[in-house]
Amino acid sequence: MGSTSSTLRWLARTLSERSRTALAAPPLATGAPKQLRVGLGGEIPVFPPLATLLLTGASCAAWMLTGLRLRFVPAVLPTAARVGGAALIMLGAGRTKAACDAALVRAGTEANFAPVPTVARTGPYAVCRNAMYVALAAVPAAAAVAVDSAWLLAAAAATLVYTDAVVVPAEEAFLSVQLGQDYKKYLMQVPRWPWGK
Fold it and tell me: Which one of 3, 23, 91, 167 has the fewest beta carbons within 10 angstroms of its own beta carbon?
């Protein structure tokens, strides 16, 4: 229990710090941007982990308010299998996040919409340009499998929709200006998502 509560405290503290920093970001100077702005009026209106948390919370609220138990896992699958499947999804998400972090460190950059000196091309970034966001969407997907809730599965899908429609286009435009031809070449070589595109 202590480990769970310390993890939740760390998550709350991190989200609070990142949100406060993002909302206080100064406007971009004219010319090439140095950093993407996160927050209302910025290129990224909602910090992606916070968006995932909000979408998951909205799905849970809709589930509780409607009282509809929308299932998607076959009824013959025992609870232990669902929980085991959810644990495997979370393990995969954690390993993907760690591999993404390692690839970013090797490239001399970080995942905070900050100035980027080069493209991370190793690890998960050799397969998909947005592996970190896939790992992020896996969190509500794992919860959906564990409790057999299509509501939570919808939160995972909404996370990917928000990321694909808002976050990734802003990042791609930013990185195209920052890194020029090198990034445009990377866009042609590596798909946006592991399933293509």
Answer: 3
- Reported as a single tens digit per residue, the pLDDT across 187-196 is 999 999 998 7
**Domain membership flag for residue 195:** no
The verdict on residue 12 lying in a domain is: no
Pairwise CA distance, residues 159 & 52, whole Å: 6
> pTM for the complete prediction?
0.78
| Torsion, Cα of 142, 17, 24, 46 (10° steps) | 10
Task: Specify if 10 maps to a domain.
Answer: no
Between CA 136 and CA 122, with CA 84 as vertex, the angle to 5 degrees is: 40
Any idea of the CA torsion for 33, 35, 38, 43, to the nearest 10 degrees? Answer: 30
pLDDT value at residue 119: 87
Answer yes or no: is 41 within a domain.
no
Residue 16 — very low, low, confident or very high, per pLDDT cuts 50/70/90?
low
Angle 158-100-122 from CA coordinates, rounded to 5°: 125
How many structural domains are present in the chain?
Answer: 1
